[in-house]
Amino acid sequence: MKYLLVAVLVALGWPEPACADALPANELGRVMILEYHKIDYPEHRWTRTPENFRRDLETLYIRGYRLVNLNEVLDGRIATPAGTTPVVLTFDDSSPGQFRYLERNGAPQIDPKSGLGVLEAFVAQHPDFGRAATFYVLPGASKPNRLFDQPEHESRKLQYLVSRGYEIGNHTLWHANLGKYDERTVRGQIAGAQEWIQRHVPDYRIRSLALPHGVYPRDIGWALRGEAKGVAYRHDAILMVAGGAAPSPFAKGFDPTRLPRIQAIDQDLGRWLAYFEKNPRERFISDGNPATVTIPAGRRDRLRPSLAGGLKVIEQE
């Protein structure tokens, strides 16, 4: 089946995959954080069809990529198998096609053509792919982007995501352009979104913010931590809209307050997949041990000055 998928993808114009497990570990390589918006029809700049989303998952899987959550990257605790590459999925704007329930025999069931339905089905078939994604939701937006546009299922959906190991991120109340507003409004947008989310998942800590429109507030500190109306927030990361593959979390260039992403469309994703096929030493290749950081010999100077406690650095030729 794997070889059939390779043949189909190559015929569609994707580059032929290299054998990732033949490459030595390199945990200074770059990591793709993919950005999805609508999962719907027709295919468009901000829309990925369910079929093309599944093709993305197949492409990543056969090329040796494995899903991790953003927080695993932030914490520097990447546990993908040796020879594989971590990849992060993010979904912005909580549009209905990302997570939809259908009524079947009087009970809600996940729509198999929604983004979550496609992902869950793929993971069921390929459990070694991992189950991970971060959903940047809009709890105060107008229809159809207010928490996936099924008000009767808001709590059920957010609780389901958390129970299955997915992450929920802050995207402001209603996709506010933070560069346009004063401090009070920025903090209100961020704290208000968190307060609304935590009505449904009270003990959940939101650790990252995806910038609406990719625009920072006038002071980045407003987005990182603060409070409004008695609700305190603290973010460990801020995600941009574009910028390419992110530096390794172990590299000097890793800045969690300015994390770049790749738009998950054929042009952008295909370009980065081709780049890593042509430049395999630029790709993060796991050593399979989250307690160690394996890097090419002679590159210790590229490591961050301080790593998470207890991590052992291994150099290899």
- Percent of residues in helical segments? 25-40%
**How much is the radius of gyration in Å?**
19 Å
Distance between the termini: 34 Å
The main sheet comes to: 8 strands, parallel
What structural class should be given to the helix and strand makeup?
alpha/beta
Average residue pLDDT: 94
Number of helix segments?
8
SSE order: HEEEHEHEEEHEHEHEHEEEEHEE
Low-confidence stretches: 1-9
Written description of the protein model:
The chain has 317 residues and is α/β, with parallel strands linked by helices. 27% of the residues lie in helices and 22% in strands. The chain contains 8 helices and 16 strands. Strands 1, 4, 5, 8, 9, 10, 13 and 14 form an 8-stranded parallel sheet that branches. Strands 2-3 form a two-stranded parallel sheet. The model is unreliable at 1-9 (pLDDT under 50).
Helices and strands, with pairings:
Layout: H1 2-11, E1 32-36, E2 38-39, E3 47-48, H2 50-62, E4 65-67, H3 70-75, E5 85-92, E6 101-104, E7 107-110, H4 115-125, E8 134-137, H5 154-163, E9 167-170, H6 183-200, E10 208-210, H7 220-224, E11 225-228, E12 231-234, E13 237-243, E14 259-263, H8 266-278, E15 292-296, E16 312-316
Helix pairs in contact: 1-2, 2-4
